[in-house]
């Protein structure tokens, strides 16, 4: 997904947030990402556990764990251990199930990486879902050292919560060795216990960055699960994982490019950072934002803010990034800080108003944003259109009609304004004017190759024509 960096407004090419007036109701159309908790610079362990970690269940073998590393449309890619899945499972697809904390999916494709010269005990598998999970951000195992604290995330075989859903366990441990040379890529050794079923789980640092994939441990016997009273195998005193750098070095793979994963390796900074370096954080963030690597973009913009707490552009761009991952509250905070630092940031004000009106339903606050935009630029057709939507929601259809008319005069390609005005005309029993606007909207949507909006406009025309004939 490409983002128009020249505007930095949340438009239909980024998130479908256009308000459309239905024949009988005013309906909000939104494909926005669900709200996910992501902190300013790091992801919390519960966040990575809930939104990036999955359970993998072969048809005739013990389950294992995996971590979501990429999203492309509704297709998610999961990285796991090869010994947790079988080639037959991947070839047959359906027998292999992927289970998040909330839902279960069939595997639709996959690839084993445990053969060839660079043989690693890894596999990638894919599933399709309309839900919004957050791919993990890659760190670098090369930037770890002995005695670093890390956490393993995975699903022990017999662990469930009180509702019967699989229970994710976070296991904190300490790195012992990075180049253990155990074969199949298991060169990361660490202390602590691991349970069966957690193979394939993510090894993360305290910032939620992916450092490796957990996969091996020594069995010491069994213990009982406190909730289910069932026995589970205990592993230790040492376990092993595959450094994530090994996987990155294999890229690109079929249907997985390196640009499709979020990589953030936090550099070592000198005590003084030049303005050019600060600017480079913005440039790097914009590059990640344009490539839809939102986690990395947020990290770069955060680094720019850490070096210059009054960098209004960094706050504005980070607000956009947060909005795109669904963290609307954090987006509002960043937009507000950007506007506080520079009141002329029209795009930050526009985006804040959009979230306030569309997502949070705080119409009075949103109205102030759009009125300020119109005051500063009376020819802002987008702001006029959005103010018209708010007036409609507040029951002032005549004012909404006036704003739509002004927006159309300023931008005759604003199909949504034609559509919404046409619906209001229909509700006012002015069907001739309604049909004229709806036909114009249909033509615009056709030229934009927007089949969904084209169909909606065409249906409205047919409904009105059918009612007139009756």
UniProtKB/TrEMBL annotation:
Keyword set, alphabetical order: Membrane, Repeat, TPR repeat, Transmembrane, Transmembrane helix
InterPro entries referenced in this protein's UniProt entry, alphabetically: Peptidase_S1_PA, Peptidase_S1_PA_chymotrypsin, TPR-like_helical_dom_sf, TPR_rpt, Ycf3
TPR repeat placement: 278-311, 312-345, 381-414, 415-448
Superkingdom: Bacteria
TM stretches of this protein: 7-29
Protein name: Uncharacterized protein
Organism: Crocosphaera watsonii WH 0005
